[in-house]
Amino acid sequence: MTLTAASGVAQGADGPLIPVLAVVGVGLIGGSVALALREAGQVGRVLGVGRNAQSLTRAQALGLIDEVATPEQAAAEADVVLLAMPVGGVRAALTQMRPHLRPETLLTDAGSTKLEIVEAARAVLGDRIGQFVPGHPIAGAERSGPEAASATLYRHRTVILTPLPENTSGGVARVRELWQACGARVFEMEAQAHDRVLGSISHMPHLLAAAYMAQVAGADDAALRLTLAGTGFRDFTRIAAGSPEMWRDIFLSNRDALRVELGSVRAVLDEMERAMVQGDGEALEALLLRAAQARRNWRKE
Amino acid sequence: MTLTAASGVAQGADGPLIPVLAVVGVGLIGGSVALALREAGQVGRVLGVGRNAQSLTRAQALGLIDEVATPEQAAAEADVVLLAMPVGGVRAALTQMRPHLRPETLLTDAGSTKLEIVEAARAVLGDRIGQFVPGHPIAGAERSGPEAASATLYRHRTVILTPLPENTSGGVARVRELWQACGARVFEMEAQAHDRVLGSISHMPHLLAAAYMAQVAGADDAALRLTLAGTGFRDFTRIAAGSPEMWRDIFLSNRDALRVELGSVRAVLDEMERAMVQGDGEALEALLLRAAQARRNWRKE
Distance (Å) from the C-alpha of residue A279 to the closest C-alpha of chain B? Predict the structure, then answer.
């Protein structure tokens, strides 16, 4: 297991860390990077790229980006291009940029799964793959769009980079510094480990919360249930409000790892149901104790 | 479906609503009632009953109770006896109190399931069952014990009463006023509907969160997973830290309703897995959209 945490933000000797940043997909994730880098004085000009013209206009009005650009312009002008759109759109964006990419331009992304994106990037970028440093900021909210962007979104949050053998150490360091300038702590690990771990601690909670929420909403007495639901329900289901389009892409992209985890969660549910049916209070309590202790000890180390 | 919400706290004409309150089990739930009624000026003397002498001493030191009493004393002296211990202990407490119970004393409880408690109360109280008004405050926290008690725990929270045919309307009104004096809104419904609905919106989230948390904690790379877990994980698993003993009792007590719900949640999980396996993005998104819309609309009416 390769897992290293780096800390300490390098300050640009003279001028910002990133003279020209291009953000492809200026919503919560990309917009927040732009705002955070601006606040830290680590970015010069910000180009905004996207398919939704309205969204780009709003992003400009909100001060997230300085100007709207095409993928081609971004590839030719930017020092760093951040791909911050749903996983499904990355291949098309890279294909448009590839012919215009300067050799010194760095590409990075914010996708929630890494194996699929790395595969797509390899196919499109070919011998330029070394310019792509895959990344994933573990931050987000139930809100989305440029209006949701915030300079503080990544403060004290975790960002995982899954560097490729072809990356230069200078390139990886620059992307690391970008995220550190946003206030994040940066870890490095392999793409496969990333997808397994995130399948467990991010995608699986969403899968369970969404399945549960859909089940409650479909009940005959859904209105009564929702009237009486309290604070436990509130916190447990919060993530189920997230973007259906984004999570559809994540689930499809990471289906292999997710199915392994789901099988394992099902086995625990089976064990709990068996204990209930048989009135086996001891087994039930032991299982609940294991869960409670793990949760109580979390973030206490 | 009988569901009525009552509002408006009746103020005692002269003197508090409850001259002598006995709280059996002075932890978070019972202690918070005592504090809230005191703050509202609606209780005279508070007797504390419990098996744990240390806990009672702490409750007295914290000002939750005025004096420690036996179940027999509580039955003979109190105007209202609140049973606020785990479901499993109610039968024994009622058995001790029954011979000493004055005819005008009201009994009520705070148990998370109602059918089992009503059955136990009927068996023990016999022709005095009309004195028992079953109740359930939907409030709680991951913390427990007298130190966790707070005068504001029930403010704007929901309390469900499941009155019995044998209850007098005056008795039900008094218990309703007790909870309203604590700041809660009070609903009335049948015990069976209560257990079905709570099985869905309270017990099922706990079952899923605990099963998931136990699964993560049991993984080979649990430490890595827990290091990288973020805010979605935090909220989704919060309830899994709850008392294993209390939740064991709830799951066993409400196993019938809970198993029906679990079967229904499993069916949605099956459908999501099928969509993932078949790459059926449309079905997956439709399901996620149903969940997201229901969650976004919750508490907006």
Answer: 7
